[in-house]
Write a structure and sequence with these properties.
About 75% of the residues lie in helices and about 5% in strands. It is mainly α and about 180 residues long.
Length: about 180
């Protein structure tokens, strides 16, 4: 709002880029949290008896680790200047016209976690279907059914996440083909 009411003011400074960097770290961490959930599910279904890695302290360490990993993944984009001030929008972000910046954000922040998530869930479903007749313990069977319901819900969420990340992949390609961004 401030940029629209004061169009002569410029926000093209280091603080603007740092805010964009922090915003993208939050987005990366959001996708990495789904990746951690997928890894948790696959470990819980395939190795239900081994509780060595199921301590609360290990979850806290992994949570902090995903924030640090997200920050390190994005640091090159901040340092080489992929995050820039957009004069028409009055904020900093990876410019939709920047092929390198947009593809970096898409591939590192979304595509890699998404592929690992999908592979984890496909393998989990494959494992459950292959081992379902041999599962004798009713309690474990109920647990696996519950996990399968959760997996279906997560796949729906992944579909929605895909639609949220699609513009970052679409806009640079459209910019290269059309010479300007679609309005």
């Amino acid at each position: 709002m401030y940029g629209y009411s004061h169009p002569d003011s410029s926000f093209n400074n280091r603080w603007c880029r740092i805010k964009a960097y922090l915003m993208y770290i939050c987005g990366y961490t959001f996708f990495h949290s789904f990746l951690l959930q997928a890894i948790y599910r696959i470990c819980r279904i395939i190795h239900p008896i081994q509780t060595k890695c199921q301590h609360f302290s290990s979850y806290i360490i992994v949570s902090f680790g995903q924030w640090i990993f997200s920050a390190l993944e994005l640091l090159p984009s901040l340092l080489i200047g992929d995050m820039e001030y957009l004069h028409n929008d009055y904020h900093c972000q990876v410019a939709p016209s920047s092929m390198r910046g947009s593809l970096t954000v898409c591939v590192l922040g979304f595509l890699f976690p998404f592929i690992i998530i999908v592979c984890s869930y496909v393998y989990t479903i494959y494992y459950v279907r292959q081992h379902n007749p041999t599962i004798v313990i009713i309690k474990r069977r109920k647990s696996m059914r519950r996990d399968m319901i959760i997996l279906k819900r997560i796949l729906i969420i992944l579909t929605l996440l895909t639609s949220s990340a699609a513009p970052h992949a679409f806009f640079p390609v459209a910019y290269r083909i059309l010479g300007s961004l679609p309005t």
